[in-house]
Design a protein that fits this description.
Layout lengths: L1 H32 L11 H28 L4
Length: about 80
Amino acid sequence: MTNLLNSFKNINIMKKFLISTLLLLGLSMNVPAQKRPPAPPHPSKSELVNIKMQELTKKYNTEKNSSLIILLLPSR
């Protein structure tokens, strides 16, 4: 009878150990999944200047073309 009780105690201890191990592994696997992705690289100052220059050039050309169209329209 005592042999049977000792067997049940050993099984109980093994179950607790198995559950603890699985829980610990599960939590440790979840930690890397919570990391944020790396931030995208920021443009350099020269890249920002080039982008702004392109925008201003485009705006200037658009306004220049629209003023030429107005000048070329016949007056009434």
